[in-house]
Amino acid sequence: MSSISKYFSGLFTGIKSLLVGMSVTWKELWTKKVTQQYPENRDTLVISDRFRAELTMPHDENNEHACTACGICEMNCPNGTITVNFKMVETEDGKKKKVLDTYKWDLGMCTFCNLCVLTCPSDAIKFENTFENAVFTRDKLKQQLNHEGSKMREKKKVERPAAPVAKAPVVSEVKVETPAAEVKPAVVDTEVKAVVPEVEVKPTVVDAEVKVELPIEEAVKADKEIEAESKDETTEK
Ligand code: SF4
Ligand code: SF4
Asked: 119 in ligand 2 pocket by Cβ < 6 Å?
């Protein structure tokens, strides 16, 4: 690139940058102003409600607070800004009870992380947006949040209304109609016929002629004996 083209390139880049800057200035000239003229406007100064400036422990008109001295906020504080001191007292019914003695908070140590407020189970502490906390010595940044002579607010017992007793409807007479049972006639003196299968009786063979075949010699001998016997019988007659 020649020296003349470099010159004009730089010139146009400078003009473009100048126009961008002038456009931002022109735009901001007409937008709503947010700059606060502090401390001249102290009476009209508006600070966001969410601004965390000072940890406080709200007390009611009876000088009572909600802190139970459980120490959870002290345990959750990442840099040891809170110190909870408690004492044991005896209640009317003779039981020992832990109550808050002093609640110390060091503004000079606080990082305004809000962990103490978020973890408090009793909603006993909260951050205020009162930001004018400048002092001349560091010791003055250490504060006691519970008021002198204050005490813990007793929880009111919520009396629950008695549950309405549901009245059962009065039934004068209950008729239960049962369907007529189907009566089957009893079977009396039924004739039981046993079917006996016919037994095939085979005729017994009586006086069956038995032919015994003897050998010839014995047969002849037997014939002779029979003839002799028959002759004897005829002679005797
Ligand atoms: S401020 Fe809350 S968390 Fe901290 S000791 Fe009191 S009741 Fe417990
Ligand atoms: S805001 Fe954070 S640092 Fe400050 S006291 Fe609470 S827990 Fe500790």
From this structure: no
125 within ligand 2 shell (Cβ under 6 A): no
Distance 118 CA to ligand 2 centre (A): 10
- Residue 70 CA, closest ligand 1 atom number: 8
- Over residues 105-127, the pLDDT tens digits come to 999 999 999 999 999 999 999 99
Ligand index nearest the alpha carbon of residue 86:
1
Compute the distance between CA of residue 119 and CA of residue 102 in angstroms, rounded to an integer: 19
* Residue 209: inside a domain: no
Whether 80 is covered by a domain: the verdict is yes
Q: CATH number of the domain at 67, please.
A: 3.30.70.3270
**Total of domains in the chain:** 1
pTM across the whole model: 0.58
Amino acid (one-letter) located at 143: Q
In the block, tokens 């009793």 appear at 122
**CB neighbourhood size of 36 (10 A):** 13
Q: Which residues line ligand 1 (CB under 6 A)?
A: 67-73, 84, 120, 122, 124-125
Confidence category of residue 200, pLDDT binned at 50, 70, 90: low
Q: Does residue 178 form part of some domain? A: no
Side chain identity, residue 114: N
